[in-house]
Amino acid sequence: MRLIHQNLTGSWLLVACLAALTVHPLAAQDLDGEHRSVPSAGIPAVGSITITSERAGMIVIDGLETGDQIKAMGTVTIPNVRSGITEVAVKESSGRITKAPQTVLVRPGEMVSVVVKRPIPDDFVQIPGGTFTMGSPDTERYREQDELPHQVRVNSFYIGKYEVSQREYDAVMGGNPSRFKGAQLPVEQVSWFDAVAYCNIRSQKEGLTPAYSVNGEKVTWNPLADGYRLPTEAEWEYAARAGTMTPFSTGNDIATSQANYNGNYPYNQNAPGIYREKTTPVGSFAPNPWGLYDMHGNVNEWCWDWYGPYHTEDHNNPLGPSTGSSRVNRGGSWSSYAKYLRSAIRNYNMPSYRYSNRGFRLVRSGF
Questions:
Q1: What does the DSSP 8-state code read for residue 338?
Q2: Residue 323 sits in a domain of what CATH number?
Q3: Averaged pLDDT, 36-51
Q4: Which of 25, 68, 273, 288 is most deeply buried (CB count within 10 A of its CB)?
Q5: Is residue 324 part of a domain?
Q6: Res. 28: pLDDT tops 60
Q7: Which DSSP symbol is given to 25?
């Protein structure tokens, strides 16, 4: 256990006194309840650690709280850390502890830097920020007039590998409104408001800051919150494309062996396929190049944005119109023709509507 020298006054005297004792060595209690001996003889050689954290909370070194608080994306330097292999972590107000990905070697008289990163949530993929062409070219078959191509930049974010399942929804909300029942089937017949409520309640259950403030039908998004939320329309298309420029992430066509849709109506006069007439378990088909499942088909997925014409001058993390009557949903569903599964296609409905081909997928901000 490292001895962290926070208060210079009297600390070396304490160490010297302990060195004179011939009975038990000084014992420090870890957060997990274990006791480990702290060397008590002599004055230890010390260095310092500069910590940058993507999480806010109390700094913990080798299992002991130092008394130092750090803000999210903040930096704090801890002096007089005993030299040697050292483990750094941040304990959040919820009690959750996030460790630095690697231990660091503290050398006498030197300073070492370490970064405590936000952990990737289970069943989520970290999507790196980047710029892409949102919309479709004039040459894309079956394109709609509202798919005007334009350059968009999005920041990094985390997105669920899968659509929210009925098991996940029921565990949080205590009910399952879906038409097609099955624990691993995507939840459907949920409104946009239902999806927002799920995001907030799950965030609270997991000690995260809810992303949304809800006052009746007025919903405000706090972009600095670390809780669950819906993707923006730009984030959704960026993730669905996964670096591709073709109508689908699968290329210029998509087969019913690659997605769940109405195979009686294939894309661009290709061969017909299966029409399953219901949802399939999340993750039943191969993922897109970024590891995301069912971005085409199964259920349409609610997005944050109000529906409206693209503001092509809004290049950086666009949020869509400030007001509207319908919310965007993307991706096509089990009942859709293949042309409605294209990465660029835009669907929209009143946020109160519930359909058996409508579900959602979660996002968390990457900061």
A1: G
A2: 3.90.1580.10
A3: 66
A4: 288
A5: yes
A6: no
A7: P
How many other β-carbons are positioned within 10 Å of the β-carbon of residue 199?
Answer: 26
On whether the CB atoms of residues 63 and 30 are closer than 8 A, the answer is yes
In which band, very low, low, confident or very high, does the pLDDT at 162 lie, cut at 50, 70 and 90? very high
- CB 84 within 8 Å of CB 2: yes
> In this predicted structure, what is the pLDDT of residue 31?
38
Torsional sign, CA 188, 192, 193, 198: positive
Is the residue at 248 inside a domain? yes
- The tokens describing 123, both together, are 């069943």
Domain of 25: which CATH number? 2.60.40
Same domain? For 26 and 74 the reply is yes
Q: Could you tell me the residue range of the domain that residue 48 belongs to?
A: 11-116
d(CA 154, CA 2): 42
Containing H/E element for 90?
strand 88-91
pTM, whole model, 2 decimals? Answer: 0.76
Could you tell me if residue 294 is inside a domain? yes
Q: Is the pLDDT of residue 100 over 50?
A: yes
User: Domain total for the chain?
Assistant: 2
Contact (CB, 8 A) for 213 and 222: yes
Q: 215 and 107, same structural domain?
A: no
Mapped onto helix, strand or coil, the DSSP state of residue 276 is: coil
Q: Is residue 202 part of a domain?
A: yes
Contacts of 304 (CB under 8 A, 6+ apart): 221, 229, 230, 231, 232, 233, 319, 320, 327, 328
- Which of 43, 64, 65, 46 shows the shortest CA–CA distance to 111? 46
Distance (Å, whole) CA 119 – CA 1: 25
Q: Using alpha carbons only, what angle is made at residue 230 by residues 225 and 234, rounded to the nearest 5 degrees? A: 105
